[in-house]
Design brief:
heterodimer; A: mainly beta; seven-stranded mixed sheet; four-stranded antiparallel sheet; B: six-stranded mixed sheet; five-stranded antiparallel sheet
């Protein structure tokens, strides 16, 4: 069974802390994505990666960075967490063809106090 | 640029009634379209996708969607709602890049009344 796992389901951090969200996929997918989901706004793309050490900005990259040192792992980093980054974060992966579906992890609900 | 619009942030139906969730898209290229479902406290799961083969696409759990180019629509239907269909549904279109970025609608929350 294909699987995308995220390191935490729930996370509480304080303003100014550095936060790491980890995502691992076992499908040998080239593409990996980070989204944030907010009520009434749907999913918005933060960053994506189509190969190891490659990254591209999505629609809302400000305040975030990413790291992809291995094909199966894609990390989202909040350099200095702020309260407006309280959200649900979803990771996804896909094979490189444009019509391929994305497989999603269960999400991490991050609260920044 | 590609975009999707989902009409209605909340839809409520009675158990056994028809489910109709609306999605209109805008795309400068032939679109690839997807419907995803999100159950409470879970990630997204693919219901079905349109990739320019048959215009009527059948998905999991009895859902189907019809691609209508003339109406730029990809509405999701199910003939008879079940309580377990209560979830949030997202329509998405592949963006203009080559790597399969998805552009999502804002979602429609479906409630099913007994």
């Amino acid at each position: 069974d294909v699987k995308v796992t995220q390191s935490s389901r729930y996370l509480v951090k304080r303003t100014g802390e550095k936060v790491f969200l980890e995502c691992v996929q076992d499908m040998d997918h080239e593409n990996m994505f980070w989204y944030r989901q907010d009520p009434g706004l749907g999913l918005r793309l933060i960053y994506f990666s189509y190969d190891v050490k490659m990254k591209e900005k999505g629609d809302i990259p400000e305040g975030y960075s990413v790291s992809r040192e291995k094909k199966e792992r894609f990390s989202l980093i909040l350099e200095s967490a702020s309260t407006n980054q309280t959200s649900m974060y979803l990771c996804a992966s896909s094979a490189p063809r444009r019509d391929n579906e994305q497989f999603f992890g269960p999400g991490t609900r991050l609260t920044v106090l | 640029a590609q975009s999707v619009t989902q009409l209605g942030s909340h839809v409520s139906v009675s158990e056994g009634a028809l489910v109709l969730l609306r999605c209109n898209y805008s795309s400068s290229v032939p679109p690839y379209l997807f419907w995803y479902v999100q159950y409470p406290n879970q990630g997204l799961q693919l219901l079905l996708k349109y990739t320019s083969a048959a215009t009527l696409v059948k998905g999991i759990n009895g859902f189907e969607a019809e691609f209508k180019k003339s109406e730029t629509s990809f509405h999701l239907t199910k003939p008879s709602a079940h309580m377990s269909d209560a979830a949030e549904y997202f329509c998405a279109v592949i963006g203009g890049g080559s790597q399969g970025n998805l552009i999502f609608g804002k979602g429609t929350k479906l409630s099913v009344k007994p």
